[in-house]
Each structure stands twice: as C-alpha cells, then as structure tokens.
Amino acid sequence: MSTTSRSHVYLDIPAFPHSHVAPYAAEEHSKTFQGFPNMPEYLSRFDMLLSEDTAWIMRKTDTFTSIDREEELLQCEEAGQDSVTDSTAGHRALCVGLSGQTDVEDRGLEQVQSLVLHEVLKDIETACKLLNITPDPTEWSSGHVQKWLLWTEHLYRLPQVGKAFQHLSGSDLCEMSEDDFRQRCSPCGDVLFAHLDIWKSATWMKDRCSPQTSSFIGADELCAEVDSSCSGQPIHLWQFLRELLLKPHNYGRSIRWLNKEKGIFKIEDSAHVAKLWGIRKNRPAMNYDKLSRSIRQYYKKGIIRKPDVSQRLVYQFVHPV
DNA sequence: GAAAAGGAAATGC
DNA sequence: GCATTTCCTTTTC
C-alpha cells in the first residue's frame, strides 16, 4: 500500500497520522515539497484539486501562476538577470526555489502555504455547512459519501461516478488506496482520491490544532466554525443561498450579488443552484420551478422579496447582512 | 419558452 | 406545526 499522500505533495499539509491505512513516518513529513518535486505536475493539477477560491489565492500571490512563469524565470537566468519581477513573497519563493536557495524559499513558501491551506480549510467548512456532513470522512454514512461525491463532481466538473462507490461508508472510502479509486472509476478516480485526501488531512489538522501547535492561519478558526456548522440544524433555503453568495469564487457563476448592501442578488444558473439545493436536501428531483416556489414562500414571511424594479431571476433579502 | 406568482395538497422532521 | 416540496394554472416577460 502506498505511503505517499497526494495532498502532502500538493499542499504541503504535514503528513497526517490519522490514517491507519497510510501511517506516516516522522521523517516523511520533511520530505514534502523539498526542491519542488514534480513541479510541472503540481502546477498542472492545482486547479483541478482546489476550488476557484483557492486557485485565485494562488494566482493572487503570483506564486504558481503557470508553467510559463517557470519558463520565464529560466529564461531570465539564462539571460544573466539576477531576478525578475519578484514583487511578492510567493514569487520570490519560486525564483529562489528554482535556483536552490532554500532559506528564503522556505519563508516565502510558508506564507503562501498558509494562505492556500486557509482557503482549503474554508472550502471544506463551506461544504460541510452546505451538505450538512461532518468534516471527518471516516464518520460518513453511505448517504454522506454519495452527497460528497455529487458535490465534488459538480464543483469540479467531474463525470458522475456515484454508482462506482455505492453502499460504501466513509470509513470504507478512507481505507481505499489510490489504485482502488482508479479501478472503480477510471476517468477521475485519482482526482477524487486526492480530494478525499485533502479532507482527511484537514480533519487531522483539526484534531491536533491548537494555538500552540498550529502555525497555519485559520486552523483554529476551523475548529470552532466546523463544529458550529455541523450542529444538525436543518438549513433553510435562504441560509443556503446566502452561503453560496458568500463564496463568489466558488459559486459566482451560479449566483452573485448585484447589490450586496441592499441584499439584491441574481441567480445566474438556475438549474445549477437548484441542483446544489437538491443535493443538500437529498431531493434529486429538485429544479428551479420548485426552488423558486420555495423562495416565493419567503415573500409573506418577509425574508426575501422581489426588488422594487423586478427583474427575472433577481431577488432581494429583506434584511441584508 | 422560461420565469413569476400563488393556490392547494403532500411530505419529512 | 413548520418549512418546504410537489403539482398545478394563469400571467408576464
């Protein structure tokens, strides 16, 4: 059984001893990311593994923008230039990392990794809220597994493979190797395995995080927020819509604010929003016709209304945040 | 034709 | 009993 864990390569999350499947030797922890192993693969797969939100952070920090950047750096080196536009810590990390000066690399990388990890943890927290599942995959029922699969497929535009994992609990899933995933689901088994690995890593982080031990931004926040988000209270549609609106980098193509101050929002992709709501509520037959009927029930309750100037697919929270 | 509006009954917790 | 969900008809964009 493999002892490598993809998220450790991609995210440099410290290896997690949570898994009885893939026990990690302490010395393995320090091996991750050293000298940017497999950089091209790392770069090419980042967008597949992270939400748009996280990928956006990566672009913002200008660290792993593209393989072109790596080529640009190499060209600069060849041209004898000491540095290129290293205006960000992350970018510097890459510059120096490529030239082997690991002390500066470590500092820059640490900052970027913290940012990325923070975004990953936020993504998981959001998914937990929206799906009403626990962050720990080992606690999932087969129904939770199907929810998570549906969600991940939708979010990352993967083919639908739920049937390949039918009747499997979360712990069954966690015991499976990457090869098992590939065998059950050839088109995207490895990607699903990587996503699950990220969740497992986050759980391990949550279990061990404390102000003393955590050097990552937001790890302690996750402890509090995930706990409160999985309190078992059924989510209301208006809360669900607000959660989607709060993650514009993930769901901005489906639903977005037109005027956040006034609480006016537009559903850009009615079918997709309805599908997400259906996944959340275990209502496979959910569609926009039904979702919009539920929204209209809020008119009388004074939760949502149509804006003064009514537009198709545009609604307004009566009490904006 | 899709979205909006709202009545009425059914459903799940 | 509440918060939808489902199904429906009519109207509006």
UniProtKB/TrEMBL annotation:
<dbReference type="GO" id="GO:0005634">
    <property type="term" value="C:nucleus"/>
</dbReference>
<dbReference type="Pfam" id="PF00178">
    <property type="entry name" value="Ets"/>
</dbReference>
<keyword id="KW-0010">Activator</keyword>
<dbReference type="InterPro" id="IPR013761">
    <property type="entry name" value="SAM/pointed_sf"/>
</dbReference>
<dbReference type="InterPro" id="IPR036388">
    <property type="entry name" value="WH-like_DNA-bd_sf"/>
</dbReference>
<comment type="similarity">
    <text>Belongs to the ETS family.</text>
</comment>
<keyword id="KW-0804">Transcription</keyword>
<protein>
    <recommendedName>
        <fullName>SAM pointed domain-containing Ets transcription factor</fullName>
    </recommendedName>
</protein>
<dbReference type="Pfam" id="PF02198">
    <property type="entry name" value="SAM_PNT"/>
</dbReference>
<keyword id="KW-0539">Nucleus</keyword>
<dbReference type="InterPro" id="IPR046328">
    <property type="entry name" value="ETS_fam"/>
</dbReference>
<dbReference type="GO" id="GO:0030154">
    <property type="term" value="P:cell differentiation"/>
</dbReference>
<dbReference type="InterPro" id="IPR000418">
    <property type="entry name" value="Ets_dom"/>
</dbReference>
<keyword id="KW-0805">Transcription regulation</keyword>
<dbReference type="InterPro" id="IPR036390">
    <property type="entry name" value="WH_DNA-bd_sf"/>
</dbReference>
<dbReference type="GO" id="GO:0043565">
    <property type="term" value="F:sequence-specific DNA binding"/>
</dbReference>
<dbReference type="GO" id="GO:0000981">
    <property type="term" value="F:DNA-binding transcription factor activity, RNA polymerase II-specific"/>
</dbReference>
<comment type="function">
    <text>May function as an androgen-independent transactivator of the prostate-specific antigen (PSA) promoter. Binds to 5'-GGAT-3' DNA sequences. May play a role in the regulation of the prostate gland and/or prostate cancer development. Acts as a transcriptional activator for SERPINB5 promoter.</text>
</comment>
<comment type="subunit">
    <text>Interacts with the DNA-binding domain of the androgen receptor. Interacts with NKX3-1.</text>
</comment>
<dbReference type="GO" id="GO:0000122">
    <property type="term" value="P:negative regulation of transcription by RNA polymerase II"/>
</dbReference>
<dbReference type="InterPro" id="IPR003118">
    <property type="entry name" value="Pointed_dom"/>
</dbReference>
<keyword id="KW-0238">DNA-binding</keyword>
